[in-house]
Each structure stands twice: as C-alpha cells, then as structure tokens.
UniProtKB/TrEMBL annotation:
Family, similarity comment: Belongs to the class-II pyridoxal-phosphate-dependent aminotransferase family. Histidinol-phosphate aminotransferase subfamily.
Domain spans labelled Aminotransferase class I/classII large: 34-352
Pathway: Amino-acid biosynthesis; L-histidine biosynthesis; L-histidine from 5-phospho-alpha-D-ribose 1-diphosphate: step 7/9
Keyword NAD: no
GO BP: L-histidine biosynthetic process
Keywords of this entry: Amino-acid biosynthesis, Aminotransferase, Histidine biosynthesis, Pyridoxal phosphate, Transferase
Protein name: histidinol-phosphate transaminase
Length: 366
C-alpha cells in the first residue's frame, strides 16, 4: 500500500495561484500577440547581465554557490547592512514560502488583504496556517487599520502587505508603514513585499533598518531588472531570522547563472534608471487611454496600471474579448477590485497595439 498524503495536503482543493499565459495559449490554440498580463519587464536584461550569461553559459553545468556569498556582499554594500541580514531565494515567491514554513504551525493565524498577491495565500494553505483577510478600502488602498485590528484580534503570526501594492499599484509612504509597525501586536511580523520598490519615490520609502525584529522585507530582480524567468530575489531581516532561514532554505535553489546575472545587473544603475523612466512613460500612456475612454484608473507606482471598466461583469468581458484579440491581460477577481483590468507596461509598439484593441473591446461591451 502506498504512503498516505499528509492531513494538510489531503484537505487542500486542487489549485494553483496563477494560470500562466502558456496554459491560456494552449487553450486558445495560438500564441498571444501582446503579452501584458504578468507584470514581466518588457525592457529586457541589463547588457552587463546579458554579457555575463553569455560568457558563463559553458559553466551552466556547475552547481551554484549555496551561500550566495558574492551577491549577498553586493546587496549588503548597496543597503549599508551586513551580509548576515540577507537571504537569497527563488524569487519572492520562494522566500514567502520559506517564511510561512519558518513561523507558522498548523492553525496559526495569518492576515492579508482580500485580493492581495495569491501566491502568499497558496503558501499559507500549503503549510496549514489559517488565512484571514480584510477588504481593500473603497479607494482601492489596503485598509491598514483593519489589517492591524484583525491581526490583534486573531493573535496573528504574520501580516502580509505588498508596497507598492499588487494588484492595485498603490503606495504607502514611510509614515504609513511606520504606523503599521508601531501598532503591530506583539509576536506578529510584518512581511513587506517590495517587489516594485524601484518604481516608488525613493525619498518616501521606509529606510532599511535590517535588525528591526518586527519586519521582513522582500525584494526581487524580476521587475526593474527584468529577470522574472531567472527566479531570484532576496529578503532583508534580522540576523536571527536569516540564521533561522538557513536551517530550512533550499541551498541550491538559485542557479549559478541567476546569481551572476543578478550581481551584474545590480551594478548597472544606468540600465535600471532607463527601465524606470520607460515604465513611467508607459504608465502615462495607459492613463491617457483611460482618459480617452472616460474611465478611471488607479495612480500606479509599479510597472502596471489598473483601469476601471465599471463592473465585475464588464471586466470579465474585457479580459475575454482581449484574449480573443490575442492580448494577454489579467484582472483581480474579488469585490471592490473586480471591476478593474490590469495592464502591464510594454514597449511602445505593444502599447499602441493594446490601445487600439482595448478601445475596440471596451466600446463593444454590453
């Protein structure tokens, strides 16, 4: 007789946090012409990172450095912290799973916004913790007071917050995040997902204080650095937290080429600055599209913009119509946010193609 699955796994429904565009392309029988639904960077890799990948390709057969020493040294210098305050992992997705595993026993309470990043919820369920949510505010910002109140009432272990936010693109400045930290209940950690921090106003970001025991910060090379397919991110936390992660992390999970490319890109400030500027232009284009169609959009501090098409039904229609037109986009699927369609910033030709098809689809709505 074969071994039985764990009680946690047996109780879970079949699910995945995302249906990838490749799956949707197989369903539609042809590739998308415009791929603007996954918040990938349309602007490629740093030339320095590309040069490293080419020069090191013959050594792809080698295992990685399991300590990620060189990259952690560079990150430590970047933020004026110690190498021991940094852990590298398989993107923020992998690091969130590591965090839930490290801190949560089955049944422990975890708090987030309803409609926030679904991969975090996936990990919470997978490790048997108890997910509790509170809706976004009517203005589509995270309801930070409600999140803290919920964490206090339920004696939560973790409070997850993306800032800038996914899927809305909104941003909480330094004072708002400091207020959350001050109000956190004892023994509750703030997990601050800063995947899009490069696109936010630098002067209003919470300073990096690595030894703050209340906080773990997550950052990635997937967005501004264009390395979503290389799966590499990092977390900044107290030395005690990082040492605990070392007990359970997947030491060979981040490949050698990913580490080298990330290190090279980190040293290419000019490239990243160009990406940030190009994304800002693209956001302007999408906001202009919204104005042309006389619909609202959420001011964004990310590489995407969410456009309000009026209702959840109309949003579903838009995604379906664009899918049929060869355009991949996504939409949130929860109350308050369900009326939006989210558009990743593409290069100029992609934005032009999207603008034409989006306008046609919108005008054809029932």
């Amino acid at each position: 007789m074969s071994a039985r699955f764990s009680k946690i796994l047996s109780a879970l429904p079949a699910s995945t946090p995302f249906v990838g565009p490749e799956t949707l392309e197989r369903m539609r029988g042809s590739p998308y012409e415009v791929r603007l639904g996954a918040n990938e960077s349309a602007f490629g890799l740093s030339p320095k990172a590309m040069a490293v990948l080419r020069s090191e390709a013959d050594r792809a057969s080698w295992y990685c450095d399991p300590e990620h020493f060189d990259l952690r040294e560079l990150l430590a210098a970047e933020f004026s912290i110690a190498r021991e305050n940094i852990v590298v992992g398989e993107g923020i997705d992998g690091l969130l799973g590591l965090t839930v595993r490290a801190y949560c026993d089955p049944g422990d309470a975890v708090v987030t916004s309803l409609g926030a990043y679904p991969t975090f919820n996936y990990h919470v369920a997978g490790f048997g913790a108890r997910l509790l949510t509170t809706p976004y505010r009517p203005d589509c910002h995270n309801d930070t007071a409600a999140l803290v109140d919920l964490a206090r009432r339920e004696n939560a272990k973790l409070l997850y917050l993306a800032n800038p936010d996914n899927p809305t693109g909104t941003f909480l400045g330094r004072s708002a995040v400091e207020e959350i930290l001050e109000d956190l209940p004892q023994h509750c950690l703030l997990l601050l997902d800063e995947a899009y921090y490069e696109f936010a106003p630098d002067q209003d970001l919470l300073p990096v204080i690595a030894e703050d025991p209340r906080l773990i910060r997550f950052r990635t090379f997937s967005k501004a650095h264009g390395m979503a397919g290389l799966r590499i991110g990092y977390a900044i936390a107290s030395r005690d937290t990082i040492a605990a992660f070392d007990k359970i992390r997947l030491h060979f999970g981040v490949g050698r080429l990913s580490q080298l490319a990330a290190a090279a890109s980190l040293g290419d400030r000019a490239f990243v600055a160009t990406v940030i500027a190009d994304v800002a232009k693209g956001r302007d284009d999408y906001e202009a599209l919204a104005r042309d169609l006389n619909i609202p959009s959420i001011p964004s501090f990310t590489n995407f913009v969410a456009l309000d098409v009026g209702s959840e039904d109309r949003s579903q229609q838009m995604v379906h119509k664009l899918h049929e037109m060869g355009v991949f986009v996504r939409r949130p699927g929860v109350p308050i946010l369900g009326r939006f369609v989210r558009l990743t910033v593409g290069k100029t030709p992609e934005r032009v193609a999207l603008k034409e098809r989006f306008a046609d689809a919108f005008r054809s709505l029932i």
